[in-house]
Write a sequence for this structure.
């Protein structure tokens, strides 16, 4: 058996030993709550952010993929790969991000703080708008102008999240520093509330029943920068209903139509997402590599 | 060769599903519900039919670590939920533990589930067949 076949069999056997999960995912696209990935699990997520253009702009689609891994019960790490395609322009790979979230308190509290740290290596052509800081993404310039301008950025978020009855209420304060250019610190915010559509689960198998849906609403936007002033003016702000549907034992779909509240940025952001969770990823990989699990 | 591979995979899946239960489970002494939380009654106690939904939630959220029958998995140090040291705990205590988790010991918080669903889980845990504790 050659090397490729051995690797294929190993991969197949690792996959065979995974357990599929049905963790109910947060419906948010931008806002983070205090629920982290379970330790040893891997979640594979694919998203798109589609921007509907104003007059003189072009529509665009910015797809991105996340690999979210539960390192410990209080530490989750994620790798993002992102791209962007603009009608009448071009499609480009816009870079990658590595983020870490640390839950600061062990138990559930009325307000649960989580610290978020991210390193980004992206170009100015990035349009996924996973968060909006400063004046928001540049959606008017050509990719040929934006793509050569690479940025190395550090981003921090303070995530405050609470469970009030069956509602999740979460707020994120964002600060970002571009290490490649002297832009000062840029700021942003997001706020979300969401709840499941059913509070009791029936004993029967169902897919379209309310227990598989969560719905809510998000608000997000920029808060200016230290260079241009801490302000809510000249920066995009969006209101976005969010809904998620557990479509299978291990997969969920999300959708969110975001509407701009200001004349900055794209007037409408349509976000779609699909996530697929693999439980026992770490122990399965460790087992097959012959290590500790 | 494909036949041997298939047999090997079936054996592995069988061994995985039969991985040893954790009857020697010892509780984390620092993982205690506050008295007020421990005293909370299960609001679904008069609705035993809700346990069917609890079983569904158990299969979705708990089986990975506690096993199909709640016997726990030794290598994960997860509790054998059938043991009397677990079953003797009050409904409120079990609800509090499901809600808060014990992150440093690998038990996640399930506060993302609505409160009634967590009570459904407690209802189902009471239906697991009890086994005697293994004492050293």
């Amino acid at each position: 058996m050659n090397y490729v076949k051995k690797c294929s069999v190993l991969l197949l056997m690792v996959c065979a030993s995974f357990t599929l999960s049905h963790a109910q995912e947060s419906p948010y696209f931008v806002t983070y709550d205090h629920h982290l990935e379970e330790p040893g699990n891997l979640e594979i997520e694919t998203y798109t952010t589609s921007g509907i253009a104003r007059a003189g702009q072009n529509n665009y689609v910015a797809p991105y993929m996340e690999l979210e891994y539960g390192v410990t019960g209080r530490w989750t790490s994620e790798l993002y790969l992102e791209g962007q395609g603009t009608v009448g322009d071009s499609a480009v790979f816009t870079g990658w991000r590595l983020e870490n979230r640390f839950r600061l308190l062990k138990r559930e509290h009325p307000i649960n703080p989580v610290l978020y740290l991210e390193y980004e290596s992206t170009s100015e052509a990035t349009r996924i708008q996973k968060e909006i800081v400063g004046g928001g993404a540049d959606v008017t310039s050509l990719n040929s102008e934006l793509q050569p301008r690479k940025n190395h950025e550090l981003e921090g978020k303070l995530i405050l999240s609470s469970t009030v009855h069956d509602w999740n209420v979460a707020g994120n304060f964002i600060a970002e520093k571009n290490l490649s250019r002297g832009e000062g610190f840029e700021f942003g915010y997001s706020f979300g509330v969401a709840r499941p559509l059913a509070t009791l689960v029936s004993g029967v198998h169902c897919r379209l029943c309310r227990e598989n849906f969560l719905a809510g609403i998000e608000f997000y936007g920029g808060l200016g920068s230290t260079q241009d002033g801490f302000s809510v003016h000249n920066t995009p702000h969006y209101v976005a209903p969010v809904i998620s549907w557990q479509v299978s034992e291990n997969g969920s779909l999300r959708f969110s139509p975001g509407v701009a509240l200001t004349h900055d940025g794209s007037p409408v952001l349509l976000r779609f997402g699909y996530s697929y969770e693999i439980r026992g990823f770490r122990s399965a990989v460790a087992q097959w590599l012959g290590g500790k699990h | 060769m494909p036949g041997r591979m298939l047999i090997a995979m079936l054996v592995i899946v069988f061994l995985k599903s039969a991985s040893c239960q954790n009857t020697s489970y010892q509780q984390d002494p620092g993982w205690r519900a506050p008295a007020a939380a421990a005293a909370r009654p299960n609001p679904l106690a008069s609705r035993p039919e809700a346990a069917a939904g609890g079983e569904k939630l158990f299969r979705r959220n708990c089986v990975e670590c506690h096993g199909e029958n709640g016997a726990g998995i030794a290598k994960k140090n997860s509790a054998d939920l059938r043991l009397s040291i677990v079953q003797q705990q009050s409904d409120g205590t079990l609800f509090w533990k499901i809600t808060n988790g014990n992150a440093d010991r690998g038990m996640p918080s399930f506060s993302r589930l609505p409160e009634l669903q967590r009570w459904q889980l407690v209802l189902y845990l009471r239906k697991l067949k009890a086994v005697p504790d293994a004492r050293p």
Notes: Residues 11 and 59 of chain B are 23 Å apart (CA to CA). The first helix of chain B runs from residue 2 to 17. Helices of chain B lie at 2-17, 35-38, 51-61, 63-66, 84-87, 91-100, 115-125. Chain B has a mean pLDDT of 83.
